[in-house]
């Protein structure tokens, strides 16, 4: 399985179609992938496992989200005021 994840990461170009977000506006897709990345990191770090699978979510949110949003969310996480459930 790790080979397929590594292969997908290597061949990644932009965010693929996600049936959960069929509309043109990809704001929710951006936010959900940001949350998924941090949840994945938290879960795998707690289990002391490799974080490579989480890189997929990071690449997707970095492809979809404006960097100003990401910077704001990162700052909110550091301050403990982020509204999402991670």
From TrEMBL:
<dbReference type="GO" id="GO:0045277">
    <property type="term" value="C:respiratory chain complex IV"/>
</dbReference>
<keyword id="KW-1015">Disulfide bond</keyword>
<dbReference type="InterPro" id="IPR003213">
    <property type="entry name" value="Cyt_c_oxidase_su6B"/>
</dbReference>
<dbReference type="Pfam" id="PF02297">
    <property type="entry name" value="COX6B"/>
</dbReference>
<comment type="function">
    <text>Component of the cytochrome c oxidase, the last enzyme in the mitochondrial electron transport chain which drives oxidative phosphorylation.</text>
</comment>
<dbReference type="GO" id="GO:0005739">
    <property type="term" value="C:mitochondrion"/>
</dbReference>
<protein>
    <recommendedName>
        <fullName>Cytochrome c oxidase subunit</fullName>
    </recommendedName>
</protein>
<dbReference type="InterPro" id="IPR036549">
    <property type="entry name" value="CX6/COA6-like_sf"/>
</dbReference>
<keyword id="KW-0496">Mitochondrion</keyword>
<comment type="similarity">
    <text>Belongs to the cytochrome c oxidase subunit 6B.</text>
</comment>
<feature type="disulfide bond">
    <location>
        <begin position="40"/>
        <end position="54"/>
    </location>
</feature>
<dbReference type="InterPro" id="IPR048280">
    <property type="entry name" value="COX6B-like"/>
</dbReference>
<feature type="disulfide bond">
    <location>
        <begin position="30"/>
        <end position="65"/>
    </location>
</feature>
